[in-house]
Amino acid sequence: MERYFWHISGPQGDGLACVVCGASFLDTRVTSVQVGRNPADESPVFACKKPCAVVLAEDAERMARQMRTAAGLDDADVPDGDDDPVFCVDGHFGSLLRDLRTLAGTEALLTTSDDVTTIRFLLSLTARHAETAMMRARLVLARTKAPDTKDGDA
Ligand SMILES: [Zn+2]
Q: Are residues 25 and 76 in the same domain?
């Protein structure tokens, strides 16, 4: 779970209270689920399974939908490509292009958003996709050769 919850402190930041409603998991018998991380130390944070985690999931889905629409992306961008052919659509290169499109869409939304929650969500998306884009770019670089090097094993 990679979403960061920035506005938390105390028990919420320690994973001992719901990041949505603030209910203490020590005092209340509720089922909690991990919903993200505390940016301060990357430790997991939790929310009540119902209804808080459901609300968060719906929020995230709504924002993701808005972003895809704004960015003109047709499909969900959760590439899990470890398939090999580097330049095929489903390979690392294709995934890299999807990451870059997502980043472009995020940029477009960031320039128009003034809602802090949305901006933070978009920033966490940016961090994630920028990171995977970097890794994929390096993978593609590692698996391809510069044109002027002697190619032994195309
Ligand atoms: Zn809650």
A: no
- For the chain, percent helix, then strand, then coil, each to nearest 5? 50, 10, 40
CA of 101 from ligand 1 middle (Å) equals 34
What is the Cα–Cα distance from 135 to 129, expressed in whole angstroms?
10
Structural domains in the chain (count): 2
Q: How far is the CA of 34 from the centre of ligand 1 (A)?
A: 12
Same domain? For 76 and 53 the reply is no
pLDDT in tens, 58-103: 888 888 888 888 887 755 444 544 444 555 556 778 888 888 988 8
Tokens of 134: 């970097």
* CA 31 to ligand 1 center in whole angstroms: 10
Q: 52 C-alpha vs ligand 1 centroid, how far in Å?
A: 5
Alpha carbon of 105 to ligand 1 centroid (Å): 31
Domain around 99:
72-144
Whether residue 44 sits in one domain with residue 82: no
